[in-house]
């Protein structure tokens, strides 16, 4: 150290790790602060670890992809520069908060924030030019006039250098999402554009913005247009389109605080907080729709998670950090996906302090094929919030360092530093910005502060084993023109010139010939019956194993996944005539073939189950006292009901007896026999006189039919009264029940021709219970339906009822039923 540089304060902390001592040296000079961290080991520098990736088998002239990003330096150095103020107002003289930071490939660093300096809240921006000494003049991004508030900006830098900023804006007397961009390295911004553009008067807040490899802009935000808060999305190439809801309706409640990233393959990724968990969804159709794969945090119970930040690397490797209270106090947790969001690996705790102090507001960024940087606000030094940093050199499998970024040491400033953001830059550089209260007076005033950091990086050299010149990228491609087995050597070297090598073996074979598909056919079957599709005659000239899939209606969408079996059983639920398509794949090439399928409609089966009328039979007797009368009810000669009345003094109606709910089924005959036995009365009456009797038929609709007869004591020929009941059903409703079935996924209509000249009755039963069956039917769902109708015949006679059951494809079945009154 040169004592002429100024005063130094040195803090040395050590920890024992793997037979080496990690010495943390903090150097503070009059010209700024540089924090250099690195291990001091008796064995010297630990070499890096090279990873050339897996062995591969490829064809001649095939593009081979190499990826050395699995290489890492186990003891890379970390340097963090002096903190500087970003905003150009005097320190502690305004309110600057919610910073975001970005960096481009030319060394420029950009910052945007919410700023209260002219009596209004606006979004301001500043640039630290590459090779410069600090941030330049602040400029305002929003272009409205007046005192409307603008806040919570989000920023993304495109590969073309264009700067994109989105923020929440109250200029229309409700919160909306606005957007602007700069094409001149942040010297000026264009006109502001409404991103949440669907004319809603509800609130839209807290945007997150990303830019894809084609320069299109993607924005998500919180939105309460449906009452609860949801996550909505819009994109723009030359104007923002329709707003799309990201979260599905299966998860009720509020959804907050979204973060968006777009992969190089165009897949759009979104994470957000819902029900105190971190949820994820993605879109593979350019943002027209989103599918959620569920939550990312893997804890059990009701711990609170929030404040998620996400980035995605080429190849679909996703990195997510969030604030997590599963250990009671809030920690910073991380998870990654290596399959483009289909699954996420177990969560990792990033902060390494003992439990009991909080961490919050994490932010993440990465260098393609290089380090992953995380910053957060940390309360481990009790009474003061600081900005901390961690880094992964191995793609997120392990993280190193928990180091303080801010260089102030005011233990009385409880607010300290919060709301950090970080941006990566090639060469191991990272840039952090945060909300800082170190220079505030007694009032609650804040500035935006910044620090530049660097972690040691690796250099890469690939030798492809075919005599071609070495190449030096982390990820690259190569083409082999000759068959053979090639040892590809990757050499990685750290900044202390320690190196390591790794070899992967590339087997280059003659290019495959495409397979030949044979869908067989034509295929004939009836609806509802299984069909075995046979692709067994397909073959590959090179003898490669084949996989098979089928488009079962030639609509361009594959209805089956890939299968190693050439056979596929399928049942068409509806009649169909057309082509099916077979595709075969040998692992590299595909071929298709069409076959004709004819599926015939099957007529339904109809059956009249029952025709009946339910009747109450009442026996009423008047006249001479003490004589008894018995009523016997018969169906085809078999007694089905009985009643007896003994005439006693009093009201005959009160002495009546009713036999209820006699089901009279057609075409069976119903008769009644009423017997009068005056010679054998329980109490002898007079040996003379008469007893009038009535049979009263009461039907379901409340109507009646009455039969009457007079019994005379002195005329035995009157003592037995027999009556045919069927003619008395004329004019009363008869119930008809029928059932029908169809092996196809059809609708069924019941058409009743009553045989008496009255209009037919028609009832339709839909296969899905709600709407007409489309053609062809979407699934296999044989139908069975039952129909109940009522009809009254108004004249005696013989009738033939015809029931026709029709399906929606023209099939029909008819059955008949004879009735006589």
Give an overview of the whole structure.
By secondary structure, the chain is mostly beta strands. It has six domains: 1-44, no CATH class; 48-72 and 456-509, Immunoglobulin-like (Sandwich); 78-455, 6 Propeller (Neuraminidase); 523-600, Immunoglobulin-like; 610-729; 733-820, Immunoglobulin-like (Sandwich). The protein is 0% helix and 52% strand. The strands form 14 sheets. Strands 1, 2, 3, 6, 7, 32, 33 and 34 form an eight-stranded antiparallel β-sheet that branches. It is elongated.
Which key phrases capture this entry?
58 strands, disordered N terminus, mainly beta, Neuraminidase, 821 residues, Immunoglobulin-like, 1 helix, single chain, 6 domains, eight-stranded antiparallel beta sheet
The low-confidence runs, each spanning 5 or more residues with pLDDT under 50, are 1-43
- Domain unit count: 6
Structural class: mainly beta
What fraction strand? over 45%
Rounded to the nearest angstrom, the distance between the terminal CA atoms is: 123 Å
Please state the oligomeric state of the protein chains shown: single chain
Count of helical stretches: 1
* Radius of gyration from the alpha-carbon trace, in angstroms: 44 Å
Query: Which second-level CATH architecture of the largest domain applies?
Result: 6 Propeller
Largest β-sheet summary: 8 strands, antiparallel
Overall, the morphology is elongated
Name of the level-1 CATH class of the largest domain: Mainly Beta
Averaging pLDDT over every residue, what do you get?
89
CATH topology of the largest domain: Neuraminidase
Helical proportion, percent range: under 10%
What's the number of extended β-strand segments? 58
